[in-house]
Amino acid sequence: MTREAVIAAAVRTAMGKRNGGLAGIHPADLSGAVLNALVERAGVDPETVDDVIWGCVSQIGDQSSNIGRYAVLAAGWPESIPGTTVNRACGSSQQALEFAVQAVLSGQQDVVVVGGVEVMSRVPLGSARASGMPYGPQVLGRYQDFSFNQGISAEKIAQKWGFTRARLDAYAALSHERAAAAQDSGVFEEQIVPVVGVTADEGVRRGTSVETLAKLRPSFLEDDGVIHAGNSSQISDGAAALLVTTPDRARELGLTPLVRHRAAAVVGSDPVLMLTGPIPATEKVLGKAGVALSEVGVFEVNEAFAPVPLAWLAETGADPELVNPLGGAIALGHPLGASGAVLMTRMVHHMRERGIRYGLQTMCEGGGTANATLVELVG
């Protein structure tokens, strides 16, 4: 009999802004909070968990030495439960999900908890590279000494697809508008784990408009740059967790699965453009599943920079109304190693609320890779 993998529970913290409400929490403790909330809300004993796979990008300082293992210990779970840490750049916790699905489908494990954390207030972006050059002379020589700067890559994408600053800023303003509407409707409340009194995403800026964003200076190209802080993802703190198991094991544990994992894909892409991988990843995952783009009712395309979802839309022809309908990382934040699990948590709860059959999540990643995951509503 063919095994299936399901996501049976999904929780996240609110996204804390840089030096905001979550900045004082150690990443292991923040991870422990979502681990405990996950099993408490699911009503399962941590003893049933075979492994914890945790995404984290800047594995240095407070996030060093296998933060996945220390998350388990911070949660107070039995010492017998292992934990490991994954880094596929911004897709780290989405990749953690795929590793868990592979373990469950193979029959090697039955219950795996996945997720991720990034407290960027404590471990700044790029801190893991501060003391060295990870690319090496051969890589630099292969790509004409390109700096592998994601902001420059975003500028190149905007140039290639012809996106003006006004177009990018309009998209950014829409992200804030959608996120504010989602907050006001209360759709995030069930999925958020309160930590130190932080119960709402802190990055949403109500009233953001093309006019207000026009006052911001370009961040990467001084003269004619179109990328700036307002149309880029926010530096954030946060964590999220998902419970992956089989339908049979879920039944034994008294769980009602949220979604069924249908297919996954990971691709490599041009490391100079760097952030266009979601385009081929989407095509690949839909092909593997035998599902048409038109059958998908919601897409989460990570808003690393505004040109990323806009280029994806231009190439796929997807309905813009179905893409990041609750806002994205421009408004809600992008806590790197946690973002894959955060997006999946938002998406599966949205699917349950709206009765949406298929949801597709895709994430661009530093170095020119991308993950895509297709899930199907259960019941």
TrEMBL record:
Task: Name all Thiolase C-terminal domain ranges.
Answer: 256-376
Q: Which GO terms describe its molecular function?
A: acetyl-CoA C-acyltransferase activity
Question: Which UniProt keywords are given for this protein, alphabetically ordered?
Answer: Acyltransferase, Transferase
| Family annotation (Gene3D superfamilies) | 3.40.47.10
Q: Which InterPro entries match?
A: Thiolase, Thiolase-like, Thiolase_C, Thiolase_CS, Thiolase_N
Q: What domain of life does the native source organism fall in?
A: Bacteria
Any idea where the Thiolase N-terminal domain is? 6-246
Q: Which residues form a coiled coil?
A: none
Check the record and name the Pfam families matching this protein: Thiolase_C (PF02803), Thiolase_N (PF00108)
Q: Which SUPFAM superfamilies match?
A: Thiolase-like
Q: What is its EC number?
A: 2.3.1.16
Stated family: Belongs to the thiolase-like superfamily. Thiolase family.
Give the protein name, as stated in the record. Acetyl-CoA acyltransferase
